[in-house]
Amino acid sequence: MSQFVPLKVKSITPQTDQAICIAFDVVPEQQEQFQFQPGQHLTIRHLTEAGEIRRCYSICSYAGKEDISIAVKKIDQGQFSNWANDHLKVGDVLEVMPPQGVFFQKAAKMGGQNYLGVAAGSGITPILSIIKQVLFEQPEAKFTLLYGNRSWKQTMFAEQIMDLKDQFKERFQLINIFSREFNDSELMNGRIDEEKLKQLFDFDVLETSFDHVFACGPDEMMNAVESTLPNYGIAKEKIHTERFHTGQARKRSVEADANRKEEKVNIILDGRELIVSVAPR
């Protein structure tokens, strides 16, 4: 079973006013443990006053060329994300499990030259690592990124993405969709949902000859990708997805609080199923 390893924080780079990129200093004796593939993630263990919490964050760096890095975006009531953004410092040590995940591996084995990434918000993190791998390691490959955000100011890794666009002008296409910052073209406004995907295909903004599609984001977007793309001739086995959820916790009513009883919760962690008693609070 994988064990947690103490890693020192090498750098912290703000991405937006709500998100940071954390790079780790991996010493020589840890290098083998922390070799990674694009699309993999790290699990962080953090102790709070309430006890231990664990959070998974996708690696956003380019294997072998950049320090292993993750991005942490603040979410409502996020215990670790808010603490990291507000209090984490360079030189601090975090407990980190070695890389896990197979988001890119199946596509890598199948091969391909034309890729599409679909991301919203912090869903860019595993996609960015894959983009770098493809553009730097496959000289003939092309990559299209469909990226949804509230605005350019709230776009994570905007500078890195623009640098890639400048470096790979003929092979990297960026399509921004903003929900709260209006473009001249109505087509580029809104959210990445089923209707938006249909419009982008119907107006030939997106082609249908992608060898692989990688998507990471909230459920509505992911459902739209999985249901819409096959209708345009992109086979389901070519669509690779990774989901996350950042919805706000729903506030309980007074009546619900009064009627709550101790409950049993099943937790699957590191391949082990734990049954935990949770008392009402």
Describe the structure.
This protein is an alpha/beta fold and 281 residues long. The protein folds into two domains: 96 residues, Elongation Factor Tu (Ef-tu), domain 3 (Beta Barrel); 139 residues, 3-Layer(aba) Sandwich (Rossmann fold), CATH 3.40.50.80. The chain is 23% helix and 34% strand. The protein is built from seven helices and 13 strands. The longest helix is centred in the middle third of the chain and has 14 residues. It is globular, with a radius of gyration of 20 Å. It starts with a strand and ends with a strand. Keywords: 2Fe-2S, FAD, Flavoprotein, Iron, Iron-sulfur, Metal-binding, Oxidoreductase. Its cofactor is [2Fe-2S] cluster; FAD. This is Phenylacetate-CoA oxygenase/reductase, PaaK subunit.
List key phrases describing it.
single chain; 281 residues; alpha/beta; Elongation Factor Tu (Ef-tu), domain 3; Rossmann fold; 5-stranded parallel β-sheet; 7 helices; 34% strand; globular; Flavoprot_Pyr_Nucl_cyt_Rdtase; 2Fe-2S; FAD; oxidoreductase activity; Riboflavin_synthase-like_b-brl
